[in-house]
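Standup notes
- HV: blocked on the assembly model, inputs below
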Amino acid sequence: MYAETARTRPQEPASAGALILSGAKIVIRALKEQGVTHIFGYPGGAVLPIYDALFESEGIIHVLCRHEQGAAHAAEGYARSTGKAGVVLVTSGPGATNAVTGLTDALMDSIPVVMLSGQVASHLIGTDAFQECDTVGITRPCTKHNWLVKDVNLLARTIHQAFQIATSGRPGPVVVDIPKDVQVKTGTYESKESARHPGIRPKLEPELVSIVRAVEMMAAAKKPVFYTGGGIINAGPEASRHLRELVKLTGFPVTSTLMGLGAISATDPQWLGMLGMHGTFEANHAMHDCDLMVCIGARFDDRVTGRIDAFSPHSRKIHIDIDASQINKIVRVDLAIVADAARALKEMLHFWKTQNHAVDADALAQWWNQIETWRGRRCLEFRSSATQIKPQLAIDRLYAATRGRDLYITTEVGQHQMWAAQRFGIDGPNRWMTSGGLGTMGYGLPAAIGVQAAHPEALVIDIAGEASVQMTIQEMSTAVQYNLPIKIFILNNEWMGMVRQWQQLLHGERYSQSYSAALPDFVKLAEAYGCVGLRCTSPDELDDKIAQMLAVDAPVLFDCRVDPKENVYPMIPSGAAHNEMILSGADEDAPTIDEDGKMLV
Amino acid sequence: MLQKSSSIERHTIAVLVDNEAGVLARVVGLFSGRGYNIESLTVAETDHAARTSRITVVTSGTRQVIEQIEAQLGRLVSVHRVVNWTIAKPGIEREMALVKVSGHGEKRTEAMRIAEIFRARVVDTTLASFVFEITGPPDKLDTFIDLMRPLGLLDMSRTGVAAIARGEGAM
């Protein structure tokens, strides 16, 4: 097989007016042409020429992270909050392997990330050279596409195509691996326009006949529900606007996945909350009992569907997704529309209006009555305590204290993430950054750094757990270095809470290795990093301490000591259906988890 | 809802790919990573000017899995086209095998006689062995090889399936 970097070579290599630059300068110039303003990275031997070119260039801020995983998550946070690609720059070997978690996370959650990695010089590749690893081999299954650039004349073209691929269609991470000699050699710079990859033409426009059919199905529905996911966020703010209009116009209830939070305002009365394993009672029951499901930009993830053979058994299903491979992957649908969510929603609005469709008002009123009954179960209520901070209360007070602020929320992974998703109302798209698909503990702190770098004036809070946050805690140093006043709000229950919860429910309360022993003093730790630490241990000081945190113009580690025994409810136990939820620890009707359920994650 | 009862089908899928470094690893990695089967796989450059190769994969799975395989292949940046010869178009499938048989006397004669019936060619011979070259659909090769087994089958090498559409149309 030929080793070819990009699909076609430049037509005229080195013509008279061609711009000849070193590979390293080509990299910087290509990044600038792509409009890159921030790079998250870490230098090392095989990437020094690029760092040297960066040293003398202006207009790009390099954020030096403390670990390449942190750099990758920071780029994800940057990307998710801006809609632009996040850029990572790392060295060969461990630099690249450390970033693999971030790349996989970005792949699972469809986040555009462009990672540039240094590689040992071409003649050393394959010799087990110092800090050599097969970066394209290792990152092949965790990227949308990747390249090893062997010819400096193809470097600019490859980087431009990397951005094109990362951001088009269903977004995702890409890697450009650049041997050190290619960074040093000189070659021709090629501009963004001439470098476009001819083969990347995602199908954005929906087939109108399908849209017409979809709105007809919607008009005929008696018990409809919109099931919306991260695809709405990725399709840009326009998609959220169209969704809100369509929801208002039809009067249909709408639920969101973990990745889709914010597409519709959490304060919208038609929003049923998040669905799935820790979704609301009303959202899951609406999904189970509906007669028409309109899925937009979601992928029927196992956290969402519960037991698949009992998933929404009586509904017709419409699935709109930009990625054809998602159609009929888990759940067979009645109408599939492969398109960009914004364009599909726009056409749905158009045909709904111009064909004068109307909903079955009586049926819809009845359906809402039923939904209100489910809502009446008040599934997110919790037993308050005068002495212990309930984690739910901490989220509620944080939410109340930050209403109206220009706010971005990131999370780690676990119980705190679910409580945040359930209770912290996200009002707009791109305001909620969480690791959904991969479930990466340690995502939230570096992601907050990326978000804050992109939005210096905004309030950026990482809702964290004491176990997750320690996975990337070193990035506090990054926050301090760049004056990024992120607020790390740690719900400290001294346990890997979600692991503990599962051990309690599924493994006979045998708490194997889930206690967070030897925890650091987070206040002293914050001080050691040169930022601010706060501790809150009782409910009556919670509001004051939160206000203190918000008043600080510096990074804060907030050690919120919460009830260690609290579980996340409601819950669809593994292997159960949407209408078999456990509402609380005291729920006597709750289904028990059988041996089959134990085998599921 | 995905039907659980779907039976396992065997499909031949052609994939037109850029002839670039790592492209075979992308395709094969997709199959192993997602737990799909590969029963046979052939690959070679088919258009030197356009730098494209054709990969022919014989795979098996339920209808849903086959649909997923096609869709997942279609997502790869290096893939230009995916055609399922078992569903999309009536295709012709051919495979070649080299089959070494050793034996004396009656067995040797019988092997030669069967080879003639199958239109297998002798491409190497010693006093105690033949190497047959046989071409045909995979099941014809299977049958031939089964018949050779009691006659002294020693070794074989199969190319995997190459496939093309009937009629005037091209992939």
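- HV (later): unblocked. The interface with chain B takes residues 1-5, 7, 136-137, 140-141, 144-145, 148, 165, 197, 199-200, 308-309, 311, 313, 323-325, 327-332 of chain A (CB under 8 Å). The CA atoms of residues 120 and 142 of chain A lie 21 Å apart.
- Next: hand off to the docking folks.
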